[in-house]
Amino acid sequence: MSANGSPMGFGRMRRKEDARFVRGRGTYVDDVRLPGMLHGAVLRSPLAHARIESIDTTAAEAHPKVQAVITASELAERGLAWMPTLSYDTQAVLASDKVRFQGQEVAFVVAEDHYAARDALALIDVEYSPLPVVADAGTSLDESTVVIRDDLKDKQDNRIFDWEAGDKASTDAVFAKADVVVAQDVLYPRVHPAPLETCGIVADFDPIAEKLTAWSTTQAPHAHRTLLASVLGIPEHRIRVISPDVGGGFGNKVPIYPAYLCAVVGSMITGRPVKWAEDRSENLMTSAFARDYHMRGEIAATSDGKILGLRVRVLADHGAFNCTAQPTDYPAGFFHIVTGSYDLQAAHCEVTGVYTNKAPGGVAYACSFRIAEASYLVERLVDMLALELDTDPAELRMRNLLRPGQFPYVCPTGWEYDSGNYPAALELAMKTAGYEALRAEQAAKRERGEYMGIGISCFTEAVGAGPRKHMDILGLGMADGCELRIHPTGSAVLRISVQSQGQGHETTFAQIVAHELGISPDEVEVVHGDTDQTPFGLGTYGSRSTPVSGAAAAVAAQRVRERAKLVASAMLEVSPSDLDWERGRWFVRGAPTIGRTITEIAAAAHSSLELPDGVEGHLDASCVYNPPNLTFPYGAYICVVDVDPGTGQVKVRRFIAVDDCGTRINPTIVEGQIHGGLADGIGMALMELMAFDSDGNCLGGSFMDYLLPTSVECPPWELGEMVTPSPHHPLGAKGIGESATVGSPAAVVNAIMDALKPFDVRHADMPLTPAAVWCAIQGRPLRSDLAIE
Ligand code: MCN
Ligand code: CUM
């Protein structure tokens, strides 16, 4: 322990960054105020699909406080009317020909203050001719349906891509010989990450130095800089992206949004800094959504409950522009990990991506690139299979889970899982839950007409993208750099490429260095979120910070340690091969009292001491870490609910979560990540929904309509811990940031379906609002994502 009680490496420790957050001293983009700063506001389309006949900005320009009104025609002069997306599509920065979703950006006003900018929006006159709207992905490929992306040459329909994984022939073969096949349409509705802090930018273009400084809410500052350079044509060394404190991201802050470019252009036109800060409705209605996967799943098994295979067909609604963020070769993300935690013989999945007149973005919301959808589907199917076979769902899972001896395990769609002990995780969850007793309680309650349900979910995650050979985003290979400097007095500064949005990197990354060097985490300053101050890397999403950047930090620290050994050998006048390491200190083998601490060695490395050949001085080291594989955290969850059949109200009474993310750097932070993800899961299972009407009007534009879970809906979490280190990560650590969000919705829905078993309900789609549950009990499941009926 260090003086203030923090561990000298891994272990529980309060978050360093909270010292400023709990005092209200964080600095978010909207806190940035520059001299002479102007304010931007976006005029958005009220219609989901319409031709733009004319845009008249005369009155807005005449407003005394307005400095500039930008439309697509100004942008076109700079070659900026359209921008590339992360999925090799293009997106209108400001609409010129048509608007394609409600809330689409049409014009950008720059004014002296925020209020004037907003007021001036009302002075812009846009004439629209409405077009037919595609609000339902299910109709997007009908022949009579209007083509949304007529801007794309040769585009005759609304299809974006067809993609498949796994082996069709062998899958068909196992289905042909199966005793039982269960098929079900399962919707994972459109939801939204809804971070506490909405998106925003302060763009400051210096016309003399021709340098752009952009303070923006981004999860990936370096990738944003590269993208801004290629879009704007400003050389990359003259762009600085600063991502200060970020108030939640959950994937929402991965893309570059049109208003960011408008703010930059606004700054170029006016010669002054321009701030644009999104409001809540803009964030909900127009920024990166998640899910919207319309899935048909089939599961095949023998009559004694051996699961054989899985067949999946998906219609993926990507909205009006294909802006989803995932590695290039994976248009459906990592959805094909759909075989989950089970030992199957074959699997095949086909995904068709389509355009609709809905907001673009996609993937975001603690999803591990679509594993959220895959995991939910397979866990629903396994429960339906248990129902069909009249088997206990825990027993069915136990029979089919991968065994520890099968790792490293290559699943039928090609992923190589690194490590795990799945049956032990489920056993621990069942023991913690008191599973047998819960089943007995349920049986007794059913006798009394009370509806209690127990739901299980076993999931496998795949986080920490690259390796760079197989994974890139827009050609940028997925590896991350890190630099570690050791000061003459022995304290350290670690510069990393990833960016925390609340995950506590300033603490855990300091703990990694502390662990490797035997110093206190308080002596390690972590610098991130500024491209001028940190090495290049692809940023934080897909829970890749610990698996990739954390590994980089560990390797850099190990390199420091090795250099320190050479310096220590000069100090002690012994051969390096005679030195041994113990926490923080090199000492002479066999003479443990003769040694030098890292602090002493750092001082010597900066002194006039003659150093061995090949050691230039100082202890600094860097690393670019190219992960050999993803890491595969997993878990086993059990949820207990009580359902009131009269009102359809669901109460989540207990939630047991056993997670294995390998070595835990800071168990308190890990548990915090799990708590948050479990709340997300309850939210999506019970209330979160981005619905649309048949005119494409978004029905989730405020927190009055888009419901978020609070502590009231969450039970006291009961967590269990397993530690199976990743064999290929230098610390044995796997990511944890999305596990609970991925794994928990199925546990909640499975519990509710289990409660409704006496009503012969097999499946109902999320969110299971009281109305949806009530309708399911009445035998009329609700299609909740469309307000069309
Ligand atoms: N950690 C640890 N031991 C491990 C694994 C992780 O101590 N074995 C710690 C990490 O060092 C880090 C935190 O747990 O401090 C999360 O680490 P990791 O799993 O590497 O995930 P990232 O840091 O890459 O965070 C991204 C992940 C994603 S993709 C989403 S989405 C999400 C999530 O994190 N968004 C969040 N959790 C969030 N938490 C907050 N508060 N805000 C968000 O926006
Ligand atoms: Cu998919 S949400 Mo997180 O990967 O930023």
TrEMBL record:
UniProtKB keywords: Molybdenum, Oxidoreductase
Organism lineage string: Bacteria, Bacillati, Actinomycetota, Actinomycetes, Pseudonocardiales
Enzyme class at the top of the EC tree: oxidoreductase
Pfam families, sorted: Ald_Xan_dh_C (PF01315), MoCoBD_1 (PF02738), MoCoBD_2 (PF20256)
Keyword Transcription regulation: no
Listed InterPro entries: Ald_Oxase/Xan_DH_a/b, Ald_Oxase/Xan_DH_a/b_sf, Ald_Oxase/xanthine_DH-like, AldOxase/xan_DH_MoCoBD1, AldOxase/xan_DH_MoCoBD2, AldOxase/xan_DH_Mopterin-bd_sf, CO_Mo_DH_lsu
Signal peptide feature range: none
Domain Aldehyde oxidase/xanthine dehydrogenase a/b hammerhead, chain residue ranges per copy: 23-132
Organism of this sequence: Kibdelosporangium banguiense
E.C. no: 1.2.7.4
Name listed for the protein in its UniProt record: Carbon-monoxide dehydrogenase large subunit
Gene Ontology MF: a single term: anaerobic carbon-monoxide dehydrogenase activity
